[in-house]
Write a structure and sequence with these properties.
2 copies of one chain form a homodimer. With about 250 residues, chain A is mainly alpha-helical. Chain A is built from 10 helices and 3 strands, in the order αβααββααααααα. The first copy, chain A, binds a DNA duplex (30 and 30 nucleotides) through α1 and α3.
Chain lengths: ~250, ~250
DNA sequence: CCGGCGGAGGTTGCATGCAATCTCTTGACT
DNA sequence: AGTCAAGAGATTGCATGCAACCTCCGCCGG
């Protein structure tokens, strides 16, 4: 992520506010902050080393992105993710990512060399005796980002990264079975081929399959483990505040 | 617009901040503030009657939505809209709105009575000897909003209203020819029928046609008049004769 | 035992003050 | 005349203080 939003509407504020925003966002996305947890302005300000003002701006920004829940005069808490949220987000991603991929195939603006290199690195990291899943995740994000940027529709990239982000995806690959992981890699290779062929239909189809496959993995995992695993609560301290019923919602 | 965002992530802040946000947003969307215009915190604060702090928060929010351009230590200015922006936004709307409409047809959660009533009102307002285009615009927005809300995907509505808004659409109907306006009304009636039939393909198709038709009108107008008209600069004059250029819009 | 009430503690909401940064003008120098 | 530089003015960035509000606990009355 550059210091400026892709389209250049530059929602980055001053240094302190921007720093606070990234810190808090990173903590939420990484699962360091569990769903439902209260984010106190004072505490965050002290831990980040700035005053409350930039922290407030960061929290507002995160609220606009839907990562935190704002409640007037009460504070903000980390958003909790239900099965319904997951379905909403993947439903939209399965629409937008293929669209971006289709556009990228028609513009031919994608850097195929870079994409190929990422895939190689990714496979290397995934197939090692001790797979480096964090590295895989990072490369995967970059891969998707590069394609969506190549679509030429800057708002599309903004939408996906700002409004359709879920903490879970950070640990997505730790939930993939070996075969699912291999299929994901195969999808990536096929995507590059489709882009090279400049075949919009092909590219779109592969990407749609790719997203749906990921969706399936998440759904299965979510069903088994419940929301608390998804929000990172179960990966936290042994004793955490009462889970606040995050309620498994009947799928949409 | 309720005082709470549809999904309930409640990005509404305190009274002053929320009020400032709505004031400024309204000024931008209505075209009262022209593209490129600088928005000074101090001036806005005084005109709204609050201090700079809530104004700053409002501006940050608007920056996240892409309505204003933030530049560090320099200030914010109203976003300028190019043909490319228009295409990006309508490209995404032509994807998301039909999707929402499809979902609404499957959930059957749409209030068909209300939609029908809106259509009647809309036609009445449009067919009067002196068409009330502001009223038509308002009803049209409500109509689309209701459908997208009925999709059951709350994020979808958020995305469209928060990230895919353009000042132009406020005056969209003043740019419609009589025949285009009639077609738009016909689309609306057909949409209700498709929803009543609970036919996802039909509903999706009609909505896609509907958005593409609007896109075409905007593109044509934009080409002729240039961006400065789109940002509201040229609409300041007291007398606004409905252009009524008899443009036979090429069907999608 | 249960429900309503009031005060204390804690947290956010907003206003204000000051420092940092940018812009624009003025002036001197080449 | 053109270019560069320095200073004044203006504007944002951030910190802090105080008021408003919410929550929670203890207390009283039924």
């Amino acid at each position: 992520m550059g210091n400026v939003s892709p389209r250049g509407h530059a929602s980055d504020a001053g240094q302190a506010a921007e720093h606070a925003y990234r810190c808090i966002r990173e903590q939420i996305l990484s699962g360091e902050r569990s769903g439902g947890e209260w984010l106190r302005e004072d505490g965050l300000a002290e831990s980040i080393g700035v005053s409350r003002t930039p922290v407030r701006e960061a929290l507002r920004h995160l609220a606009a992105e839907g990562l935190v829940l704002y409640q007037r005069n009460r504070g903000v808490q980390v958003q909790t993710w239900t099965m319904s949220d997951l379905n909403e987000i993947y439903g939209l991603r399965s629409l937008l990512e293929p669209y971006g991929c289709r556009l990228a195939a028609t513009t031919g603006r994608a850097d195929l060399e870079a994409l190929s290199a990422m895939n190689s690195d990714m496979e290397h990291a995934a197939n090692a005796t001790q797979p480096d899943l964090d590295r895989v995740t990072e490369l995967n994000n970059d891969f998707h980002r590069l394609i969506i940027d190549a679509s030429g529709n800057a708002r599309l990239g903004d939408l996906v990264t700002s409004n359709l982000q879920v903490p879970l995806v950070r640990h997505t690959f730790s939930r993939y079975s070996r075969s699912s992981l291999q299929r994901s890699m195969a999808h990536h290779r096929e995507l590059v081929d489709a882009l090279r062929a400049e075949d919009p239909d092909w590219a779109e189809s592969v990407m749609r399959s790719h997203v749906h496959a990921a969706w399936s993995v998440m759904r299965r995992y979510f069903d088994k483990s419940g929301p608390e695993a998804a929000t990172g609560q179960s990966l936290e301290s042994p004793n955490q505040p009462p889970p606040e019923e995050a309620a498994a919602v009947p799928g949409s």
